[in-house]
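Need a sequence for this fold. Nothing fancy.
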């Protein structure tokens, strides 16, 4: 089988797709990334690059990201169709956040398997869009609220929608307009841990919840220069690779933890200057740390609610305090609260006093840790990339199981 992999040039998405590519290759299949110029793929996977100059770095502002995403979709559809036909794939693995994968799969006439690196975009009554931190609510009131959120999202996504509609018409695919219109109806591979997502009784049968595709099995060493006092709570705080520049918020988190009497380690992903890092009143401030090793010792993780970090916390049995900032983080944070593995704070609750109270609540209530430890007890059974490729192989063997 020859599979072509298409995903946005975002580090967490690329790492997930690389894990799928490695497992496909291990089983004797071909895995080929179709990327824009300047995108580096790790792990030795095959890569075909579109013609033209490299793109600009991914912007951090939401509207600029949407415009950049629309341009990426346009380039993939314009330049990728001929490349894809030359590759003669048997299957396209397409990130749910890149609608070009669905458009190209339909145009070439090959099966599409959607990959949800983040919260699944697949529609389900009662479940709000991933960027909304609303609870699951299948009542008439909840459905009306979600419909209003979708109308706002449609306005924000106008640049992307125009690109999808224009290329759908140009390729003779009918009237497609939204990201959801470009998903596979047959199979979605999701990194969600079983039991973490909201229930999907009507439209979720085709979503395989497999846990992280990329699992860190290698033993990590805890930093030798960090020596937490075992008699006091140890808190790990991180806002991820793209939000580590928020020095003010990291400082408030550190002050809140110390008010609670906890030790706190802050990781800023190399996004702060030395002066900014030194101004954070934490016990330890680092650019990077071996996150798995740190979580094995942590009593609490204060997180931006990125899905990868949330899943690592669940696998380690560590409760969370979620402070979502952007993208699907509000949706992940809502699920952390929904499943009982932690608390989440809204944007207006991010003063030091509010954070300190939430830290106290999570550390003092053993139910949060028990819930997180329940996920950890099941983590060895999460299928990851191996189960994902099992599903892919089964879909290819069964006509109609994965269709564009």
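Here you go.
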């Amino acid at each position: 089988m020859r599979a072509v992999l298409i995903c946005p040039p975002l580090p967490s998405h690329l790492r997930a797709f690389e894990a799928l590519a490695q497992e496909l290759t291990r089983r004797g299949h071909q895995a080929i990334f179709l990327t824009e110029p300047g995108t580096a793929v790790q792990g030795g996977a095959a890569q075909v690059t579109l013609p033209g100059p490299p793109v600009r770095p991914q912007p951090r502002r939401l509207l600029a990201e949407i415009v950049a995403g629309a341009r990426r979709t346009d380039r993939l559809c314009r330049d990728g169709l001929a490349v894809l036909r030359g590759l003669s794939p048997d299957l396209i693995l397409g990130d749910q956040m890149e609608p070009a994968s669905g458009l190209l799969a339909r145009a070439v006439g090959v099966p599409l398997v959607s990959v949800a690196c983040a919260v699944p975009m697949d529609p389900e009554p009662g479940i709000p869009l991933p960027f909304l931190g609303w609870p699951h609510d299948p009542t008439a009131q909840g459905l009306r609220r979600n419909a209003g959120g979708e109308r706002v999202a449609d306005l924000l996504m106008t640049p992307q929608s125009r690109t999808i509609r224009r290329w759908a018409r140009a390729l003779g695919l009918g009237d497609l307009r939204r990201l959801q219109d470009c998903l596979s109806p047959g199979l979605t591979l999701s990194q969600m841990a079983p039991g973490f997502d909201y229930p999907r009784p009507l439209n979720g049968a085709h979503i395989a919840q497999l846990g992280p595709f990329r699992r860190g099995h290698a033993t990590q060493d805890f930093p030798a220069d960090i020596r937490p006092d075992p008699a006091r709570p140890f808190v790990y705080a991180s806002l991820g690779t793209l939000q580590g520049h928020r020095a003010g918020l990291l400082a408030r988190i550190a002050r809140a933890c110390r008010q609670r009497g906890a030790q706190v380690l802050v990781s800023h992903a190399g996004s702060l200057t030395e002066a900014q890092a030194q101004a954070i009143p934490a016990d330890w401030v680092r650019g990077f740390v071996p996150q798995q090793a740190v979580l094995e010792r942590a009593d609490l993780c204060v997180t931006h609610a990125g899905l990868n970090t949330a899943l690592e916390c669940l696998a380690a049995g560590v409760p969370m305090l979620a402070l979502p900032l952007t993208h699907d983080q509000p949706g992940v944070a809502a699920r952390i609260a929904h499943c009982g593995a932690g608390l989440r704070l809204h944007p207006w609750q991010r003063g030091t006093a509010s954070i300190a109270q939430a830290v106290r609540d999570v550390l003092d209530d053993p139910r949060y840790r028990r819930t997180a430890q329940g996920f950890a007890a099941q983590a060895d059974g999460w299928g990851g990339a191996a189960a994902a490729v099992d599903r892919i192989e089964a879909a290819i063997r069964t006509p109609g199981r994965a269709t564009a």
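For context: The chain has two domains: 2-215+382-397, 234-380.
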